[in-house]
Amino acid sequence: MPLTDTAIRNAKPQSRQYKLTDEKGMYLLVNQVGKYFRLDYRYAGKRKTLALGVYPDVKLAEAREKRDEARKMIASGIDPGQTRKIEKFIQVAKTENNFEAIAREWHGKFSSNWARSHATKIIRRLELYIFPYLGARPISEIAPPELLGVLRRVESQGILETAHRAQQNCGQIFRYAIATGRAERDPSADLRGALTPAKHGRMATIIEPKKIGELLRAIDGYQGTPVARCALKLAPLVFVRPGELRHAEWSEIDLDNAEWRIPAIKMKMKDPHIVPLSRQSVEVLHEILPITRGGRYVFPSIRTNSRPMSENTVLAALRRMGFEKEEMSGHGFRAMASTVLHEQGWRSDVIERQLAHAERNSIKAAYNHAQHLPERRKMMQAWADYLDTLKKGNKVVPIFRAVGGE
């Protein structure tokens, strides 16, 4: 006899679960917990059971509709139970593989190599501008126009740099999803030139002591090649131009006298230049010495030691550590040293001479490279010691230099 709404409503739990039969294989299972619509069926010679819903959330008429749909599938050679499992798996996959879930996974995996403040800025940027619109979307379904619409919301607020940074972060997340098998393409790559260009002013650098310390600790923990790591470690200590750093040759370096003499042909001002090497700089060079001393360049290309490393090596390393182009650049080490050393009271002409900024004057170019050399030696060692203190996270009280002679 078919079930009725009244019979279902009046069914009470007993000491053991029991069934109230409907028709076409459907029944109501009653136990101490609740009342459940079920369908027993056979597929490929095996007896199976399909859940049709829980009473009273699912009424009798709705349960019968589900039963009839399932029977049609069986008649067509489709297993409704297996189909439901696949649909559930897809739904779970969509939930677990939505943009926000993968973005947070990416952030958690790589943020340990970034400065803490930088890692915080990235996740906050995503939380403010991206997650509210794309967070719940399956990452594999996000198309370029959809991503562009979200980025233009940011652009419309007048914060162009933030829009570009958000696009860059989204690209990193999409590429991570591709690498882990949860997306097939990066839609951010199709948006090149679609946003209003951001205007950049000063050279990107870091001058706040705490953030300098974070940068230096990130460099110490960098997991790239030994050549890239040592180039990164030496860059803030010598603050030469990026091209001068990557073209450094062993023949120019005198470790015994702690000097690096760069020939005029390599210098922007076409004057020879002396870089006094601090104790820390010498330590870095001794670290790379066994690896590259057999060749011409201190920092050779990864492909051949007959060429210097790529001009993008240091930049790429900074990006991999999480420092964006608006925050830090290869030239930024020079701006960092110049700003901080001036604030500490070192004489401007000493700093400028060490930066090789000195203009040509009555002093002959042949002797200009040695100008203020004793004080430059003191300054370079003091600078390296200062960086060590920042790297350790200690509070620093700068020692201001008195204006006067060497």
TrEMBL record:
The keyword DNA-binding applies. Residues 202-385 form the Tyr recombinase domain. Residues 97-178 form the Core-binding (CB) domain. Keywords: DNA integration, DNA recombination, DNA-binding. Pfam families: Arm-DNA-bind_3, Phage_int_M, Phage_integrase. Belongs to the 'phage' integrase family. This is Integrase. It comes from Desulfofustis limnaeus. The lineage of its organism: Bacteria, Pseudomonadati, Thermodesulfobacteriota, Desulfobulbia, Desulfobulbales.
